[in-house]
Design brief:
10 helices, five-stranded parallel β-sheet, Rossmann fold, alpha/beta, 49% helix
């Protein structure tokens, strides 16, 4: 057990400064991910990089992410501030700890003040803040009155919508696409056994959402499948394209 914990700690340290190879092309899109284990599970930035490559796009990514880290932690972190100013990022992705957005008191007193600070820093370097709307826990959060996944998902969506609209920031609606998959294709398993973290399919779905938001292009037909079946990849690609490209204004995408 101690060995497993030491291994997880080492993984957290390594991914906190993870990034894809630098690109020098003027068309390269530079994206910094700020978050926690939902971001580094299955290495979302690398999955997105490979997906973009299959769509003939070049991106460079960086990542500041540790398990359980909140936006408040990041707003107080000299390391995160250093990461934000370390490159000419085009987008900086913000992902809150999984439970905080679902409780009004937590988001008002923790998430929103931290998001305002981080967005000010991000806009100060000329980058665009992009809110990563995640998925709820498979079994909800009964301890805080959310008995089901859908109850918790609704609160998370409201939490992100309010702050993103206040700050005029675009959103990557991964949780919305997740809900469609759950309702229409329950044969695709998006959660790991813990009912919280994403499977490879879940991460591929997230990467497809980011691809569509960043390039405003459909991911349908992209050959990179990140180790999931071609059939599942095709389903996830179509759901994402249909949900986002027909409703760009809803996600503040310009």
């Amino acid at each position: 057990m101690k060995i497993k914990r030491l291994f997880l700690l080492l993984v957290m340290v390594l991914v906190s400064n993870s990034c894809s190879p630098r690109c020098e092309d003027d068309s390269c899109l530079r994206i910094l991910f700020i978050g926690n284990s939902y971001t580094f599970a299955n290495d979302l930035p690398v999955t997105l990089t490979e997906l973009a490559k299959s769509g003939s796009h070049q991106i460079e990514t960086g990542m500041a992410a540790e398990g359980g880290m909140t936006l408040t932690n990041h707003a107080d972190s000299a390391d995160t501030t250093s990461q934000i100013s370390s490159s000419q990022w085009d987008f900086v992705v913000l992902q809150e700890q999984s439970q905080i957005p679902s409780v009004k008191e937590f988001r008002l007193n923790q998430m929103y003040p931290a998001a305002r600070v981080l967005v000010q820093e991000i806009e100060g370097i000329g980058a665009v803040p992009l809110f990563f709307i995640p998925w709820a826990h498979r079994d909800g959060w009964p301890e805080n009155g959310m008995q089901t996944y859908m109850e918790m998902q609704g609160q998370i969506e409201r939490g992100y919508f309010d702050i993103a609209n206040e700050l005029g920031a675009p959103m990557a609606p991964v949780g919305f696409a997740w809900a469609v998959v759950i309702q229409e294709h329950s044969e695709i398993n998006l959660w790991q056994a813990d009912g919280s973290h994403p499977t490879k399919e879940g991460t591929y779905l997230a990467a497809s959402v980011f691809y569509t938001v960043l390039f405003q292009e459909s991911p349908e037909g992209l050959a990179y499948h990140a180790g999931i079946s071609p059939e599942s990849a095709a389903i996830l690609q179509k759901i994402v394209a249909d949900m986002i490209l027909k409703n760009l204004d809803q996600w503040n995408i310009k």
